[in-house]
Specification:
By secondary structure, the protein is mainly β. The chain has 1 helix and 12 strands; from the N terminus they run E-H-E-E-E-E-E-E-E-E-E-E-E. It has one helix spanning 12-18, and strands spanning 8-9, 29-34, 66-68, 70-75, 78-83, 86-89, 95-97, 99-104, 111-117, 125-127, 132-135, 143-145.
Length: 146
Amino acid sequence: MAAASAWETHDLVKKKMAQKLLDFDNDAFVIRLYTSASDIDTIEDNDASAATNELTTLDGYTVGGASTTGSVSEVGGTTTLDFTDTSWNATGSGLTARFAAIIDTTLTPDEIIAHCVLDSTPADATAPSGNQFTVQIHSQGGIQII
């Protein structure tokens, strides 16, 4: 499997940051998984409910995703938004996903912060039953704003 692509920040995130509507230190965040048929990579609306083809509750995944914690740091004029890694225990037929998305669930509606392709080939990322399906955020943070 190839490495995941970089996280792509959705368009309205910077505007909502400037409006003080997003609080990366205190808001609640989840990571959700999506199939190859999803429009998460092209959706123009940041409303997470508009994104199609989230994985269903099956084989170790639960609709709505799994919790992650956000944090903000600034060094030398670069602001970095980081999130904790998130894992699911694959069961049954195992887990298969093409995209992951970071969602702010404090806002109404839930807000898409960023998404990535889990295998930059692009191809589906899989975890057979009995294995962990982990979305590991880059060691230098998920999103950088310069």
